[in-house]
Design brief:
Rossmann fold, Luciferase, domain 3, 9-stranded mixed sheet, 8-stranded mixed sheet, 26 strands, 37% helix, globular, Chloroplast_AMP-bd_Enzymes, long-chain fatty acid [acyl-carrier-protein] ligase activity, ligase, ANL_N_sf
């Protein structure tokens, strides 16, 4: 294993790339096999292009500490633009080019940006003509398209900017760890995104300390699929590229083929990505003849027993944290008995699974939501190391992550260096003992500077002692592993990593005359679901108009009784589904992830009396989640 490059003495992101260029010059840094033409950029080329981008911006009049909006998606030129903006002395405000038009315009305006970098002319066209009403000194296209000659805006394409930069001097800019590097906008309950201010120091904390988790070697291949502007993908990209890896860009359509083609050593992803790989493997198992399926299932079961026993023996079982010496000894003996069967399963089955995803996997890093236990266990069985981490955009993002040395399944791992985790009572804020669930507070060098121009919102989440309120519920093990058990705040994170604020969608849905109350669910699931308290009077009226006989059980009916009633008839279910689809799609800023794919009816209204609403008539989501856990779980089976 080669020694990691130490960046602990630097003060700004801009200082990384000359060091990387010197260390890894001829190694390929960025490779996009799906672009036309194919893009291959060495570390020497990368540093040159970043420098030319920065000099081009300065030649166009960008001053230190200016803000530049960067609206583009995952590609090598995104990375060049991101670092070029930062090296020029500016900070960027980033978002996907596919985001809704009004959201992009809001971010541009709120961030006080003076210029715009966009993926292509299509993105620019989407933002016209409102840009005429904003301060836009110039626009840079990351494509090679020629700008319209009749546009009053000053527009340069990527090559034109680099040519300008190649013929312009660089004006050195003093940057410190306190200097603002980027604004990453997150959704708020009001629907207005908030700009998370991340400094050079916030991001450098991640780059300097990820080495305690995994150590890439120069030339290692990393497959990149997540949005580059997202804090999770972005900081990992910064880290691995600071260590000389080759980053290969893929997409959902090409992902599985690229795993085999490029055999990456490392990859970061959200739970949905690992679920899709798992589902593909399971599909292949199901396509075998009956005898082979029985053989596969036999070995998987024996290997699962082996793995679970190994966990207890090694004190790495979340369900047996306090196992006695005799229990651990028994588990060790059981594992020894099962080891030959597990080894045979590996030779016959699991080895082929690993070949199917590339033979060189050192680690898959999972974040953006919790990984389902059965999927975590499956990858352990087939010996594909999966390291689950935890964090938020406001924490740059990583606070905790599992390591190869301590990979406690079901947990998010121990804190990164210089990071503190406290578990407190959500109401009293008193610190709670180990293994007791409470609100997760975080303090460390990666905690954001605050929300841009929103001091009140900042004060709500960061107290005077520097503790950031994550809004998540969790607990810590005696070895300081963090286990996330729920969300104290409302945000729902789907398994594809998308954050959904439920309140605006719920507000839209209750506009239906047939929906009295609704609560969205779907944490760590593929899609949103909903618990619906129907308006029975309106449904009765509709049923009469449709000449249907609607028999409704009492308010405390069980889910089985509701399913057996005419409320579960096809006409009623179709009516409610049409209402949900119509109201969600009509909502401003609609995204495909906002769709409610599953729902169940409950007949007891949420109320103060039954403990499901607060005194201010807000639904107590954790209480409802617990009360209807079986029904919610049933939606996703």
């Amino acid at each position: 294993m080669s020694k990691l490059i130490d960046y602990s003495k630097i003060n700004a992101l801009s200082e990384i790339w000359p060091i990387a260029q010197q260390q890894f010059g001829d190694i390929v840094a960025l490779h996009d096999p799906h672009s036309k033409p194919e893009i291959i950029i060495t570390y020497s080329d990368l540093y040159r292009q970043i420098q030319e981008f920065a000099r081009g911006l300065q030649a166009l009049g960008v001053d230190p500490e200016a803000k530049i909006a960067l609206f583009a998606d995952n590609c090598p030129r995104w990375f060049i633009a991101d670092q070029g903006i930062i090296i020029s002395g500016a900070a960027n405000a980033v978002r996907s080019s596919g985001a809704e038009r009004q959201e992009l315009l809001y971010i541009y305006n709120d961030s006080d940006s003076i210029a715009l970098v966009v993926e292509d002319l299509k993105t620019l066209t989407k933002l016209r003509p409102e840009l005429d009403e904003l301060t836009v000194q110039f626009v840079i296209l990351l494509s090679d398209e020629q700008a319209p000659t009749n546009d009053p805006l000053k527009i340069l394409n990527f090559k034109q900017l680099l040519e300008l930069g190649a013929n312009s001097p660089f004006k050195p800019v003093e940057q410190t760890r306190a200097s603002l590097a980027t604004l990453i906008y997150t959704s708020g309950t009001t629907g207005k995104p908030k700009g998370v201010m991340l400094s050079h120091g916030n991001l450098l904390h991640q780059i300097i300390n990820f080495g305690t988790v995994f150590q890439p070697e120069p030339g290692d291949r990393v497959l990149s699929i997540l949005p580059s502007w997202h804090s999770y993908e972005r900081t990992v990209e910064y880290y691995v590229l600071s260590q000389g890896v080759t980053q290969i860009y893929t997409n959902l359509r090409s992902f599985k083929n690229d795993l085999k083609r490029f055999q990456p050593h490392l990859m970061v992803g959200v739970p949905r990505l690992w679920e899709s790989v798992y589902e593909g493997i399971q599909k292949q198992f199901r396509e075998q003849n009956a005898n082979k399926q029985k053989l596969v299932n036999f070995f998987l079961k024996q290997s699962e027993n082996y793995i679970l026993a190994q966990r207890i023996a090694n004190n790495l079982s979340l369900n047996h944290l306090n196992a006695s010496a005799s229990e651990r000894l028994q588990a060790k003996l059981k594992a020894a008995l099962l080891a030959p069967l597990h080894a045979l399963g590996d030779r016959l089955i699991y080895e082929k699974v690993r070949e199917g995803v590339g033979k060189n996997v050192k680690a898959w890093i999972s974040g953006g939501g919790s990984l389902a236990r059965h999927i975590d266990t499956f990858y352990e069985i087939v010996n594909i190391p999966v390291l689950v981490g935890y964090g938020l955009t406001e924490t740059s993002p990583v606070t905790n992550v599992r390591t190869l040395e301590r990979n406690l399944r079901g947990s998010c791992g121990t804190p990164l260096r210089y990071t503190e985790i406290r578990i407190v009572d959500p109401e009293t804020r008193q610190e709670l003992p180990v293994e007791q669930q409470g609100l997760v507070l975080i303090r460390g060098p990666q905690v954001m500077q605050g929300y841009y121009k929103k001091p009140e919102a900042t004060a709500k989440v960061i107290d005077p002692q520097g503790w950031f309120d994550s809004g998540d519920l969790g607990w810590v093990t005696p070895m300081n592993d963090l286990v996330i058990s729920g969300r104290a705040k409302d945000t729902i994170v789907l398994s594809n990593g998308e954050n959904i604020e439920p309140q605006p969608i719920e507000d839209a849905c209750v506009r239906s005359p047939y929906i009295d109350q609704i609560m969205l669910v779907g944490q760590d699931q593929k899609a949103l679901g909903a618990l619906i308290v129907p308006n029975l009077d309106a449904l009765q009226t509709w049923a009469k108009q449709q000449q249907l006989d609607l028999e409704i059980p009492g308010p405390e009916a069980s889910i089985e009784e509701i399913h057996a009633s005419s409320l579960s008839s096809k006409p009623v279910q179709n009516l409610l589904r049409q209402e949900l689809n119509r109201l969600v799609k009509d909502r401003p800023g609609y995204r495909a992830d906002d769709q409610i794919k599953e729902f169940e009816l409950i007949l007891e209204p949420f109320s103060i009396e039954n403990g499901t609403m607060t005194q201010t008539l807000k639904i107590k989501r954790p209480v409802v989640m617990e009360r209807y856990r079986a029904i919610i779980d049933g939606m996703y089976k």
